[in-house]
Amino acid sequence: MEKGEWDNCTLPVEFHLLGMGNIPTLQTPLFLLSLIIYLVTMVGNILIVVVVMADQHLHTCMYFFLGNLSSLEICYSSTILPRLLASFLTGDRTISAHGCIVQFYFFAALACTECYLLAAMSYDRYLAICQPLLYAGLMTWKLCLQMAAWSWLMGFLICTVVTSFLLQLKFCGPKAIDHFFCDFTTLLDLACSDTRAVTIVSFFLCVLDVVFPFLFTLASYVCIIAAILRIPSSVGRQKAFSTCSSHLTVVTLFYGTLIIVYLMPRTAPLRQLNKVFSFFYTVLTPLVNPLIYSLRNREVREALRKALRKALACTQSSQQLCTLL
Q1: E strand or H helix at 258
Q2: Strand 94-96 versus strand 176-177 pairing type
């Protein structure tokens, strides 16, 4: 490319998301599958938020963080799935350049926030299991609010810095993004200007917003597991483990797929496999989180049963009132 052409390269008008492939017969099944996943994700996470707010027994730090996580998953799914559903339905895979940057910003900010929230939840479980006598004094509501606020603030602040560097890049040549959403690495692949600055900045910020929370979460669970193994009775060990098993499952699913996606070699044969794992941690993880917490957590199950009984009672009362009238 000539120097003049490089100088004229700017942010293109639009990008073309290649998605899951161009097989017409799969578009309808993929649309229906994605629609079901989105609806179940929204309903499940909204239920968790409502139950945590409505049930007095769940007004603790542990469930406060869970409510934050479910609120985050609602936003997280909404950054990717509505656009994906529209592309399946209409066949239009184009996305404006600014829309692509906005999608990346909110997706990345929410993903970073989730890393911090999972770390905060692991610290809460560490204090509850390893320091039970000091838990009430250490894990105060003030600390809970501060940890949740800092999680959201850090996630969005760090991604604001990365996005500002992305906006300075020049894009030339093909506008096709071989993915179903606008990810950081796919945008870098399309840049024709020097990407060293944004790569270095994103690397250091990645250490701050992904690696550090991951290591903190890992260290917390090493201490938790060590403390559980020191409990003499099997019943005591099982009871202690049940308080953190749901969170440990969510952490494993989230970080497991995240590590595979971003450490997998970026070669052509592995590109489709990369999309599958990306689909798992961006779309399926928000779906399974409420299922994991509702199926594996006795208090959440009890709260959901109470809420359903109240809803049924209200429905029956309304029907009886209508009959009388």
Answers
A1: helix 245-263
A2: unpaired
